[in-house]
Specification:
Layout: E1 2-6, H1 11-26, E2 30-36, H2 40-45, E3 49-53, H3 66-82, H4 84-88, E4 94-97, H5 102-112, E5 115-120, H6 142-170, H7 178-187, E6 192-194, E7 211-213, H8 229-236, E8 242-244, H9 254-268, E9 272-275, E10 288-291, H10 296-299, E11 305-308, H11 312-320, E12 325-327, H12 334-344, H13 358-370, H14 372-385, H15 390-400
Parallel strand pairs: 1-2, 1-4, 2-3, 4-5, 5-6, 6-7, 8-9, 8-11, 9-10, 11-12
Protein name: UDP-glucose--sterol glucosyltransferase
GO molecular function, one term: UDP-glycosyltransferase activity
Domain Erythromycin biosynthesis protein CIII-like C-terminal: 285-388
């Protein structure tokens, strides 16, 4: 079967699909991954065909407020829709659609008759168990939790309204609003597979039957890959260090964050690894080293803790390694995942990015490294995650569609 996975956004919105795609390819399918140009090397390294999607996934502007995020998201999605059909024109028997690309992919599936399946990294359906992942990190009570979930879907409909209208016009489909199309999918009980662990988010009992939580899709990892020699030497030279990194967040704030990180590490008496990321963190010394991208699967099990922005992928990777975290959420769904880590007992109370100081970070590190309850909670979650097979469950769902 020719399978086309479509994903767009930040690195964390794309890399899980490289691992899913590689496993589907090993099962005998012809797999392509359509995403933006920045991730072409990651796609090809996984042995997948790369197809380009338009749009620049980088955040535009300096703010992280909801209104600016809405404007940014709408501009990104509209640009994405302009060339979305081109990725499918090269042929596919099945579309696997991410949270970001699903409202666009539904139009193509309708116009072409190609089968499609939604494969999400975030829980988007309203539930009484927790509020919308982008509205509030903590429960507001079951009625309000559901209300925030419904409100978030209405906001998403607004983000996609123009892109959907333009796509339907180009594809010669009858006019229909983004909201009406979403409701049509829900009424048909359209299957959605969610690629996160029930250790972090148990499947809500009030979800409709078509919504499944299957477990994580892990980024592709070359079995022959090794850590850089200087990092390996650093790891062997002393006690387990702490990794501090913000992934694709905090661009341009590297100098301030680097200073905070080093001061906090030394105040807590810990060795540290700074991951440069989009922020450009950097520092070197006997007790600290700077690295670029390295496989989480190789590095995380050798750490005392991870300080991160609480993206879904990094949060899951630290848990999978049985390592506690100090979450410092920046925006979007990160406060939600940070709160889930804390609720599990694998992290202390999250530190808001805006309120991050060396003193607060040092206190949190001292707490999470010295109190073994955090490591034990992370280890329990890791054992739970080891029983899940997100890729295998997805492969079964794909084969049911053949």
């Amino acid at each position: 079967m020719r399978i086309l996975i479509t994903a767009a956004g930040s690195r964390g919105d794309v890399v899980p699909y490289t691992g899913l795609g590689a496993e589907l390819r090993r099962a005998g399918h012809d797999v392509a991954l359509a995403t933006t140009d920045a991730f072409a090397p990651l796609v090809r390294d996984a042995g997948l065909e790369f197809r380009a999607l338009p749009a620049d996934p980088r955040m535009r502007g300096e703010g992280t407020g909801r209104r600016e995020l809405m404007r940014t998201a709408a501009a990104f999605v509209t640009e994405l829709g302009h060339g979305f059909a081109d990725a499918v024109s090269e042929g596919a028997d099945l579309l696997l659609l991410s949270t970001t690309t699903a409202p666009l992919g539904w139009q193509l599936a309708e116009a072409t008759g190609i089968s499609s399946l939604d494969v999400y990294l975030q829980p988007t359906a309203p539930t009484g168990d927790f509020p919308s992942t982008v509205m509030s990190p903590g429960s507001l009570g079951r009625p309000l939790n559901r209300a925030t979930g419904r409100f978030a879907l209405r906001m998403a409909d607004r983000v996609y309204e123009q892109a959907v209208a333009e796509m339907r016009h180009r594809l010669q489909l009858p006019p229909a609003s983004a909201a009406a199309l979403r409701r049509r999918q829900e009424q048909a009980n359209r299957p959605v597979l969610h690629g996160f662990s029930t250790a972090l988010v148990p499947r809500p009992a009030d979800w409709r039957s078509g919504l499944q939580v299957v477990g994580n899709w892990w980024p592709h990892h070359d079995p022959a890959a090794q850590l850089p020699a200087n990092l390996e030497d650093f790891l062997r030279a002393g006690p387990r260090p702490v990794l501090i990194g913000f992934g694709s967040m905090a661009a341009g704030d590297g100098e301030r964050l680097s200073e905070i990180a080093v001061r906090a590490l030394r105040r807590a008496g810990l060795r540290g690894i700074l991951q440069s990321g989009s922020a450009g963190l950097a520092a070197d010394g006997d007790d600290v080293i700077t690295v670029g991208d390295v496989p989480h699967t190789l590095l995380f099990p050798r750490l005392a803790a991870v300080v991160h922005h609480a993206g879904a992928g990094t949060s899951a990777a630290a848990l999978r390694a049985g390592v506690p975290a100090v979450p410092v959420p920046v925006t979007a769904d990160q406060p939600f995942w940070a709160a889930r880590l804390a609720a599990l007992g694998a992290a202390p109370t999250p530190i808001s990015y805006r309120s991050l100081t060396a003193e607060r970070l040092a206190d949190a590190l001292d707490q999470v490294v010295k109190q073994q309850t955090y490591a034990r909670a992370a280890a329990r979650a890791a054992q739970h995650m080891a029983t899940e097979d997100g890729t295998g469950q997805t492969l079964k769902a794909v084969e049911r569609l053949t």
